[in-house]
Amino acid sequence: MIIGVPKEIKNNEFRVGLTPDSVKVLVSHGQTLKVETGAGLGIGVSDNEYAEAGAEVISSVGEIFRDSDLIIKVKEPQPEECRLLRNGQILFTYLHLAADRLQTELLLESGATAIAYETVKEDDDLPLLTPMSEIAGKLSVQAGARFLEKSSGGMGILLGGAAGVASARVLVIGGGVVGQNAAQVALGMGAEVLILDASAERVRYLNDKYSESIKCLLSGHDTIERYSQTADLIIGAVLSPGAGAPKVVTREILKIMRPGTVIVDVAIDQGGCFETSRPTTHEDPVFLVEGVLHYCVANMPGAVPKTSTFALNKVTLPYITKLATLGLEGAFSEMSGFSDGLNIFKGQVTHKAVADHLKLPYVNWVSAIR
Fold first, then answer.
1. Do residues 289 and 143 share a domain?
2. Which tens digit of pLDDT belongs to each residue from 41-97?
3. Is the pLDDT of residue 246 over 80?
4. CATH code at 328?
5. β-pairing verdict for 90-93 and 70-72
6. Is residue 125 part of a domain?
7. pLDDT single digits (tens) 127-161
């Protein structure tokens, strides 16, 4: 199989789909690798390192898309990349289709098969989403702390406070991987932390895990409204796999927050969990609504591309190897939960949550393939 690795073109996205070490593994399994010139520069990897690993370094992205059977990326294909995809080709990357109708329509038109990292399952976990969720959770607090500074538009509060001065209050909505990593970093920086989660079972688990260090309560509209009024930093960490994120914080709640409050919407890839959220970039990360500073960068882990790329490759490589050596059906049969990643197959939506959210026809992947 010919595997293509194009350079990421999303705004300030410096990650790359495969590292040279991953290329070596795939070459050892008899695969042909084509990597676009400069694809690894964002993580400090040269074209020569890819060539030494056994890849052919190609200057034309059009040639990579034309010749490759399998395209490996990090972020969702931009419209110009979608138009390079062809019938029968496989794309394996983060997609987040529920928040992006245009991308969905272009992928359907292409006839390509699109597998999303974020919906691949392993038991009850999302193994290919987890490392980026960990990183995004940690980064959310770093970003929030920066924008709480007065010079960045915040109210001028230090998360850890000072001698005789209270610590900042951090509200984390969602107690999953993102939420827990955010809470732990905020606690480590000296903040007072509260996690809200909609699952009573999860709340019990979090209270047992964190004892008295982090407070955990059952979430609901009234609870969110109450604690939003006194929070200095609010992290939105709500996930509904494959579907659009639920809007748990309304504009009306925003109006009762204090001016200069910072909100970080980590769910923005799936449409955001704040009613007033819209995607931003690392280049222009924040905007104000009702006096509240919104940080809604849609590729947060792209800010730390070296850490993110190596963390991502550790979990994606086994799936890529199986896909390249066994083909689509063979890989799905051998790796439980891999088929949950199939979002689009030759012009059909094969993930129910995506189809339901976008109000498109849904076809079971087994029926679609046969």
1. yes
2. 999 999 999 999 999 999 999 999 999 999 999 999 999 999 999 999 999 999 999
3. yes
4. 3.40.50.720
5. parallel
6. no
7. 999 999 999 999 999 999 999 999 999 999 999 99
348 and 280, same domain (yes or no): no
Catalytic residue among 96, 294, 351, 357: 96
184-193, 232-241, 317-326: range with lowest mean pLDDT: 232-241
Q: Are residues 60 and 141 in the same domain?
A: no
Domain count, the chain: 2
Residue finishing a domain among 253, 279, 303: 303
294 carries an active-site annotation: no
- Please check whether residues 351 and 284 belong to one and the same domain: no
Residues 63 and 115 in one domain: yes
The pLDDT of residue 274 is 97
Q: Decide if 351 is catalytic.
A: no
Is residue 206 one of the residues assigned to a domain?
yes
Question: Euclidean distance between the first and final Cα of the chain, in Å?
Answer: 22
What is the span of the domain harbouring residue 264? Answer: 130-303
- Are residues 310 and 244 both part of a single domain? no
Which of 337, 229, 223, 235 lies closest to 277 in space, CA to CA? 235
In a shared domain, residues 159 and 169:
yes
Of the residues 47, 269, 340, 351, only one is catalytic, namely 269
Mark whether 185 and 261 lie in a shared domain.
yes
Average pLDDT along the chain: 96
